[in-house]
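YM 10:42: Signal recognition particle protein sequence, as discussed on the call
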Amino acid sequence: MAFENLSERLQKALRSLTGKGKISEEDINKASREIRLALLEADVNFKVVKDFIKQIKKDALGKEVQESLNPGQQIIKIVDEELTKMMGEESVSLNKSPHIPTIIMMVGLQGTGKTTTVGKLANYLMKKDKARPLLIAGDIYRPAAIDQLKQIGDNLNVPVYSELDNKDVAEIVKHGLQEADKNKNDYVLIDTAGRLEIDEQLMDELKRVTEVAHPDNTLLVVDAMTGQAATKVAEGFNADLDLTGIILTKLDGDTRGGAALSIRAVTGLPIIFTGQGEKLTDLDSFYPDRMASRILGMGDMLTLIEKAQQDYDTKEAEKMAEKMRENTFDFNDFVDQMEQVQKLGPIDQLIKMIPGMANNPALKNIQIPDNEIDHIKAIVYSMTPEERENPDILNPSRRRRIAAGSGMPIVQVNRMIKQFKQSKEMMQKMTSGNMKGLENLPGM
Ligand code: GDP
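YM 10:58: structure's back
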């Protein structure tokens, strides 16, 4: 998970301060030293670290902390606020053009995730704004990139503009924009070529595309795993192009977090989105305050809720609620619900977004098998249609047959049926507004 090491070390440094009635200058110096080392090891820019520590020390020694009832917690609050500031304080959204289309140009080095991110962003805009985007394949030197974009377009059912024999990218983009005008697309996303390092030819080409396209957003895609090198790349691109923001990819594999923490402070450019996986849904808006809370192990409930809203089919959810109220929720619905949850992502990652769970030692090595839901599905599919609709008729002999049919042990079948009944009972209470008795249910 992103920031794992940093998160653990910062929390350890801060734990030594909590619960103390009074905090001495020595305590603060000691904690600051540990925080400093933790940040440097996370590959945060040293100048950023220096300013950060200076500010923390100043605030921690201030009157407000020293006179507070719980100085340790007050210091955690300060660290949380300073981390938030380091990452930009406010969340920044995409620029939107007053007339269609809004043009988004994606730039960056090769392999950082530009093409994938074009797809993720198109998917995000379609869900959030009901957008009708057009994608332009401007990475013409890598034939595979055009195919990759076309594949993404097919998956999303979004048109992709490409010209296989044309070597003039600016011209391709110009034609692509004409196509978007004709089709009244409201967003145009331009994928561009990357190199292994910044060179003049790449920059010239990107500048020419900029002159043709006048993008509302020029987004630099950087790979979080490259740490501080990412900030150098950002400075390089920003010197030649008017970047409007950063998309930080591969945060899922970045246990250090240096790029996320330094890039805003060093370049002044806001991180707008983060990529947290290879799937088209693995793109999140970036909120500095939520990220800071996550680093300090305070969870990230808001992101979780947003994810649920975005990926969860609300019509489907309303239909389910109706079934609960009418008490007609059956095993078919149960499987549908499971599939909705599955769409949100691996369950162990979701759990870690809940406050207090991220660094809970008991959950450190938790592995919730992805196939758990598949097992449940196998059990349900081994039921007859009648059984799926009337769970009450599932007597022992029927259960044995289902176990044999699904290849699952009978205890697992029994457990699943029990869980189904419990969830049904709980959800019915919730939808009917009667919360009494919920406290007796597991997990409440
Ligand atoms: P491009 O050369 O910049 O267009 O990069 P691609 O879009 O082809 O991506 C390069 C590789 O990075 C692919 O294997 C992607 O699946 C992977 N990738 C992109 N974004 C992410 C991300 O946020 N997390 C992870 N784990 N992989 C990513």
